[in-house]
Automatic annotation (TrEMBL), chain A:
GO cellular component, one term: membrane
Membrane-spanning segments: 36-57, 134-155, 175-194, 206-230, 236-255
PANTHER family in the record: NITRATE/NITRITE SENSOR PROTEIN NARX-RELATED, NITRATE_NITRITE SENSOR PROTEIN NARQ
Pfam families the record matches: HATPase_c (PF02518), HisKA_3 (PF07730)
Protein name: histidine kinase
EC number: 2.7.13.3
One term of GO molecular function: phosphorelay sensor kinase activity
Domain Histidine kinase/HSP90-like ATPase as annotated: residue spans: 485-574
Catalytic activity: ATP + protein L-histidine = ADP + protein N-phospho-L-histidine
Top-rank EC class of the record's enzyme: transferase
Keyword line: ATP-binding, Kinase, Membrane, Nucleotide-binding, Phosphoprotein, Transferase, Transmembrane, Transmembrane helix, Two-component regulatory system
TrEMBL record, chain B:
Stretch forming the signal peptide: none
SMART domains to which the protein is assigned, alphabetical: HTH_LUXR, REC
Species of provenance: Actinophytocola xanthii
Keyword Hydrolase: no
Keywords: DNA-binding, Phosphoprotein, Transcription, Transcription regulation
Record-given protein name: DNA-binding response regulator
Amino acid sequence: MRRPDALTAGLAAATVLVAIVDTKMAISAGRQPAEFYILEISAALVWAGVGTLAVLIRPDRPGVGRLMQLLGLVLMLDAPAGFELTTSDRWVAVDLVLAHAAQPFQIALFAHILLAYPAGTLRHPPERRLIGTTYGWSAVVGVVGVIDTVAVVTAPGWVGARPPGAITGGRPSSVLMNSVWLVLTAVFLVLLVDKIRRATRRERRVLAYPFGSGLLILLLFLIVLVFTAASANIPIPLAYLAVLVGPGAFLAGLVRERLSYGSLAELVRTIERAPVGQLQEALRRALRDPGLQVGFARANGYVGEGGDVLTLPTGNGRAVLPIGGRPPIAVVLHDASLTSEPTLLNAASAAARLALDNARLHALVQEQLADVRASRRRIIEAGADQRRRLERDLHDGAQQRMLAVGIALQLLQRQLGDEAAAAELLTEARTELDAALAELRELARGIHPAVLTEQGLSAAVRTLARRVPIPVTVEDSLSTRPAPAVESAVYFIVSEALNNVVKHARATSARITLCRNENRLHVEVVDDGVGGADAGLGSGLRGMADRAAAFDGTVSVTAVRPSGTRVAVELPCD
Amino acid sequence: MRLVLVDDVWLAREGLARLLTAHGHTVVGLAGHPDEVPELVRRTAPDLAILDIRMPPTFTDEGLRLAGALREQHADLPLLVLSQYVEPAYVQTVLELTGSRRCGYLLKDHLLDAAQLDAALDRLVAGELVVDPAVVEVLLEDNQDPLAVLTPRERDVLALMAEGLTDRGIAERLFVSLNTVGTHVQRVLRKLDIPSGATDNRRVLAVLTYLDRTTPRPNP
C-alpha cells in the first residue's frame, strides 16, 4: 500500500463529508426506522471505502478502485432522494435537488465498473460507446430529475414529500424513459456476456469473484422473496450482507489478481534461482498463470520442459513473450491478459533470461570441466602406459642384448683359456657389463617397477618400503587389485611421499597403510619426522595431488602429534 | 646334466643354451611359450628346468605359475626361475608355489658368472634351494636394526643360510670346519629367535620369513 494521492484522499473525504450531512438529515427529519438510514449510508460508505482500498492496494491499476470510490460518493449524494423526510428546510430542498441530479449516474457507474473490471479500462469500442451513452442518458435523466424536484420543493406547502419522480413516474414521459433504460440494460447484458465469453482463463478466475458473489446474492434474494411472499421487506441482515459482499467481491478479485509489485525483487529471485526443469512452474506461480508454458529454442522450433514440441499460438487468448536476444533462447506462452502488465512481464522475462543463462553457463562449465578431467586422466594414464611400455622395451631389448654380450664374453673367456692379457681384458669387460646390467635394472625399476605390473600395488609398496633406509611398516588389507592406472597413481604417490620422508622429514620410522572402504581406496603414509610439509609447496606434493585428482581423488597433508606428517590419499576404485 | 630351457626371448634362449652347452650340459629342450613346457618336460624327462619369469601371454609372472604347475606334475624336478628383478616378493612366491623343494631364484646376469651358474645347478640337483645373493643382500639391508645383534661372521652365515646353502656348503664357502658352521648357525638362530629344529630347506624358509617380516603378507 502507498500513501493515498490527492484525488483518492479528496474523494474519500468528500464521501465522508456528505455522509455526515446525510446522517444529520436522517436524524433530524427521517420518518423511517434508523436501520433504513444506516443501511443506505453504510452501503455508500462500503463502496467508497472498498474503492479507496482498491486504489491503495493496486496503485498500478487504480481504474476500478477509482470508479468504486465515485460510485460510493454518488450513492452518498443521492441517498436523501429516498429518505422520506419531513421538513421544509430550504437547505434540505437544495440537497434533494442535488440528489436527484446524481441519482441516474449510479447506474452508469455500476455498469462502467462491471465492464471495466478488473483492468479499469474499457478495451472494446462497443463497451466504450455503451458506457458513454449511458452517462449521457444519465445526464438527461438527471436534468429531468432536477426540474421535477425543483418544481416539487418550490411548490407551496412542501414538507419534505418526495417529488412525483422522473424515475418512479406515472407520467407518459416516464414510459419513454424506462424504455431507454431497458434498451441500455439489454445492450449492457449482451456486452457483459461477450466479455465473460472472451475472457482468458486467467481473467475468468478474477471475474469469478464479483460475478459469482453477485449470483449468490441474487439467489439469496430469490429464496427470501419466495419465502416472504414478495410483499415483505428484505430482512435487515441479508441486506447488510448484500451491501458488504458486493463491493467486497470486487476487491477480493482485484487482490487475487494482484501480482505483487511490492515483491518484484522476490519474484525475480525466485525465477532466477529456479532450476531449468522448474522454470515453467516458477513463472506460473509468479505470474499467477497456471496455463503458462516455457519453450526452449531448438534448431527446428521450440520444445517444452518435457521435450514436447510447442506450437506458438496466434490469438486465442495466448500471447508469446520472447526471452533473450534475436532469435530468442526461449519463449514464454502466457495468458493474453498479462500483456496489460508490461512491467511485470519485463521483470519476469529478465529473470527467466538470467535463469536460462545461468543454467546454460553452468552446463557449459560442467561440460568443460568434465572434458578437462577426462583429458587429465588420459594424460596420466598415457604416462603410466608409456612407462610400462618403456620398462618392457628395456627388459625385452637392451637387457637381453647385454645379456647376450655377457654370454658371448663368457664363451670367449672359456675358449681363450690361459691367455693372461686377454683374460684380464675380458674380466674388465665383464665387470663393466655387470655394472651396466645393474644400472639398467635400476633404471627400468624406476621407470615402472615390474613388480607393480605383475604382483600389484601391495607387493610394489612393500618393495618401496624395503628400499627406504629407515624401518617402514606396511599395513595392507587390500584383497583385490585396483585398476592398473589407479595402482600406478597410488604407487608413484607413495613413492613420492617416502621420498619426502627420507629427504626432508629426518624421521626414524614410517608406516604405510593400504585399505579399501566400499569403493574408496585409502592410502596413508605417516612418519615421525619434523613435519613442515605443505601441500601448496613443492612440486613433489603438487605432483601427488595432480595424480590423485586425475582419478577424482584427493591428497591431504597434515601434521601428526607429537611430531611427524601424515599424507593421506583417497581415491575411488571399483 | 640334461636341461630344459624356457624363455620367450630368442636372443636370451639361444645365448643361454650355448652357455649351458659350453658348461658341459645338454639342452634337451627349448621352449618359448609356457604352454609347450609340460609336454616337453614329460617327453624329455630332464634333470632340471630353467624358466624365465616374464613370458607370454600376459608377460607378468607366467614363469612362476609354470613352476607351480611343473612341481605338481614332477615332485622332484629341480626348477630354476630366472629373473631380471631383485625382488623378495618373487622369491617368496617361488618357494610357496614349489613347496620349498628343489627350486631356485636367480638373476639372469648372475648366470654369466660361470662358478655361480655351476654351483646353482649342482645344488639344485642335489636337492637344495637357491636364492640369489642380491635378493638376500636386499633383505639383510632391510633388517639392519634387528641384525645388529649378530657378529659380522654370524651375519655372513645368515646370508648363506638365506641363499639356501647347507651347513656343508657354508663351511666350504667360508673355509671353516663343519662344526664351526654348526655353532655359528645355532647361535644365529638363537639370537634371532628362529626355531632351530628346522634344517636345510625349511630352515631357508624360516630365515627368509624372518627377514621378510617387516613386510607382512596381505591379510586374508
